[in-house]
Design brief:
The complex is a heterodimer of chains A (about 110) and B (about 110). By secondary structure, chain A is mainly beta. Helix content of chain A is about 0%, strand content about 55%. Chain A starts with a strand and ends with a strand. The chains are: A mainly beta (about 110), B mainly beta (about 110).
Chain lengths: ~110, ~110
């Protein structure tokens, strides 16, 4: 069965520092991969998605992610974090029935 | 504006009562989904529907029921059989064969005491 692992439960970075959130997936073929962001008590907003093609994907709010098949990874990056980026981030993959399978999430804290 | 609405935002019930959570979308999407979110566990799929008058169980369907009588509506009933109903519930919709992106509603926080 497909699965997604986000190894970091919490990450703390200083404002202005770079950010990388890790995501590993298990799936034999080319997966559909997504990153969502959730502010406290809110729904999820899609940051970016990868289906095929260029392995470096640009998203909203200055985020990008790189698909690396050799490492089964789809890590999310941002060169300079803003205080408003503090939120919970979810990596997900989509199965053949169009259901999303989520990782357990990474909570980002931003130090002033 | 197109989107998904969930009501109410907060819901309180006594143990042993059934409660229905509302989810409405005006995106003209065929597929709709219900997820449950607990701290530290990500989102887990409860039920999904790919077309009107049809729905399938997800990973944690026990103690829940749904209906899909209209394309725009996918209500979720949390029954008294659900052992731990207190959670944050999220509804989503998608148009399969199109952009393969699920759009999420703002969620309903259910507290059962």
């Amino acid at each position: 069965a497909q699965s997604v692992t986000q190894p970091d439960i919490h990450i703390t970075v200083s404002e202005g520092a770079s950010l990388e959130l890790r995501c590993n997936y298990s799936y034999g073929a080319t997966p559909y991969l997504f990153w969502y962001v959730q502010s406290p008590g809110q729904g999820l907003q899609l940051l970016l998605k990868y289906f095929s093609g260029d392995t470096l994907v640009q998203g909203i709010k200055g985020f990008e992610a790189e698909f690396k098949r050799s490492q089964s990874s789809f890590n999310l990056r941002k060169p300079s974090v803003h205080w408003s980026d503090a939120a919970e981030y979810f990596c997900a993959t989509m199965d053949s029935s169009y259901k999303l399978i989520f990782g357990s999430g990474t909570r980002l804290l931003v130090r002033p | 504006d197109g989107g998904i609405t969930q009501s109410p935002k907060y819901l309180f019930r006594k143990e042993g009562q059934n409660v229905t959570l509302s989810c409405e979308q005006n995106l003209n999407h065929d597929a709709m989904y219900w997820y449950r979110q607990d701290p530290g566990q990500g989102l887990r799929l409860i039920y999904y529907s790919q077309i009107v008058n049809d729905f399938q169980k997800g990973d944690i369907a026990e103690g829940y029921s749904v209906s899909r009588e209209k394309k725009e509506s996918f209500p979720l009933t949390v029954t008294s059989a659900q052992k731990n109903p207190t959670a944050f519930y999220l509804c989503a919709s998608m148009q399969p064969g199109s952009v393969y992106e699920q759009y999420f509603g703002p969620g309903t926080r259910l507290t059962v005491t």
